[in-house]
What does this fold into?
Amino acid sequence: MQLIMKYVYSFKEGNANMRELLGGKGANLAEMTNIGLPVPQGFTITTEACTKYYEDGREINQEIQDQINEYIVKMEEVTGKKFGDIENPLLVSVRSGARASMPGMMDTILNLGLNEEVVEVLAKKSNNERWAWDCYRRFIQMYSDVVMEVGKKYFEELIDQMKNKKGVTQDIELDANDLKELARQFKEEYKSKIGTDFPTDPKEQLMGAIKAVFRSWDNPRANVYRRDNDIPYSWGTAVNVQSMAFGNMGDDCGTGVAFTRDPATGEKGLFGEFLTNAQGEDVVAGVRTPMKIAEMAEKFPEAFEDFKNVCKTLEEHYRDMQDMEFTVEHGKLYMLQTRNGKRTAQAALKIACDLVDEGMRTEEEAVLMIEPRNLDTLLHPQFDQEALKATEPIGRGLGASPGAACGKVVFSAEDAEAWAAKKEKVILVRLETSPEDITGMKAAQGILTVRGGMTSHAAVVARGMGECCVSGCGEIVMDEANKKFTLKDKEYHEGDIISIDGTTGNIYEGEIPTVDAVIAGEFGRVMEWADKFRTLGVRTNADTPRDTKKAIELGAEGIGLCRTEHMFFDPERVFNLRKMIIAETVEDREKYLNNLIPYQKGDFKAMYKELKGLPMTVRYLDPPLHEFIPKTEPEMAELAESMGTTVEHVKEVCDSLHEFNPMMGHRGCRLAVTYPEIAKMQTRALIEAAIEVNEEDGLSIEPEIMIPLVGEVKELKFVKDVVVETAELIKKERNSTIKYHIGTMIEIPRAALTAGEIAKEAEFFSFGTNDLTQMTFGFSRDDAGKFLPSYYEHKIYEQDPFAKLDQIGVGKLVKMAVEDGKKTRPDIHLGICGEHGGDPSSVEFCNSIGLTYVSCSPFRVPIARLAAAQAAIKAGIEKKN
Ligand code: PEP
Ligand code: MG
It folds into this structure.
């Protein structure tokens, strides 16, 4: 026997725990009904019906339609009104409501059920002709826009024409006849665009509206919002059909939205807006300027008292700040919606702390209430929200490193430095960045690149520096040679001012004012709670003393990844490194490498001093050497002269380093296999640094040496032997008993598959999930940005796998490697140092598979701490259940 699915629930049948099925709005309407609040009655069509709609080729099947019709009848019984009735007509609103709230992303239709006949009845019955026609013209407008996708602007033009004709500026100044005429014009417009008459049958209108709401789940803005907020496409939206309460029936009516606490600051107290004689969309659309909610007390004293009580009831019931929509019809209050209000990071922290102090929440619950990602905004300067609202972006890339930056466009790292030296603020706009750009990147306020994804060079380096970066804006047509780019048909030249938002990825023309981020006292308090609850360690990816200091300030417990190649970016250092690369004999190479030791050792010492005894994992040279070679004639000439050779020879060597696929080429531990002297140099710099800092500062540092890109245990063993031999030699020279640890990165699928073997030689694993993702998917981390948008569009992937760990595939390899590694070496130390180490859902995964720590860029440390705490608390709750 086939089970009959229930696709429709009346508000009386649901409750707050049913959000998966009824969506947030539906579940809360049911809950409000249950606790006796004044809610206009109705029903919710489930998220499963939405999924079915898509499965059935975007059709609402007969079974679901039958259930909807059944519930219309029930609703008619409850309200005593009937669809299309000329005695007592029922009008409804149709609204979306997903499991996670997606404000403004999907569609709403009000006043459904109207036709010419019904309008006349309403006009007569209410003795309010203006109101009746206002409802009708609004309905035609919304239905045409949302259901038939005619477009708002035609109707707005007609309204404007009418206002001009009447010599008025406000919608409410139009009288009943004007609105009647508008309704006629709207219907004409509808017919000319769609080719059929505007539907008069309320049931037909309703099915059309429900379909439109289901369809809006897949509209472009909803898709983008979901990707940004980690909401799976498969969830679908529910649809709420609710009998209308009218805020536009006269001056004793109105509508409003309000929060129980200020969503920007978290301050306790009613915060919101109210409009008399209006419907919900008027408040949101800003057609008229609403009044402050407090003023409602004078106009509607009774409804306001009721509303205050409702707010108290709801806050106490949900134990969280509520965001509510309501309507007052002839002085009586109706609740249309409540949900946990969206809030800024600052407000989130304050509310969480206040709720603990008010005895409403435990510390664990408070920690769970804060969206880790939002903390980002507390750590970087931000654009002034008001100014942003007034400006349209000119383009959008990936929000690769949060923050807000304005400045003059420059096209090269040298120009960035030169302009910055003249105290100019600049945005470095590049096709893509490379290691040589680092100083220019530092000098700039922000970085904008045409190519590259979330783990591109620009993104990783910018995040490391805490600098704003928008990467991968493929819409830009770049002309670096002529120092200009084109975006949306407009040319931008060197010196033009632009603003970029590293959180949203938006690009703006001109200067948008910024405000400094303030870290309120609650921030520290919540972080203390988080540290109390988490079991996962949090380290940072840092390779300069400055980044190390910042990361420790933000709570890092050590360095999980020091990318040593970043230490050679400085022009003087790279010059010496180039000599080593061009050298042809081991002796020469060693000679030039020896020149590098003081730099590298100096850096290690400075970092160890910043760390004050906290651990540091040092990763040996990783990128292909050709990334460092000179690119221009003058650079080659300078190098040739300094080495006593010819430019032609330098050129020849540089050409010989060319690789067809450098990411899979001569890099990682392969460099140390061919040139063991590089590993020797790095070992000397590191061990000597540690011995000296231990002596100078009375510490007992045990260096952690990490060999990158291992795929075979024997290659690890080979490099390890070089390291051990050198380290032991230095110990003898220095008469030291220093301990050190040698481990590897797991970033090649073969390493994950043979982790049991590799663990025989490695004391620790650090999962390099940037490379592991790249190699598991088989696409380049630097080029994926070009085609991933098509994958999102076709729902092949919902998320950038370089930003959010692919737990099914890459995660399986990680999990397997953890298990096999532990079998060989039960006390193996396990970390992750790919960009995923700072992504909340990936952190939760790392916690679940038993990693020791996550490591992420300095500015993401607080996010990782909070995410780790949430993971531990959730795991505890699951265990209990
Ligand atoms: C990685 O591959 O995940 C990693 C951390 O190393 P890199 O990004 O430097 O290749
Ligand atoms: Mg790597």
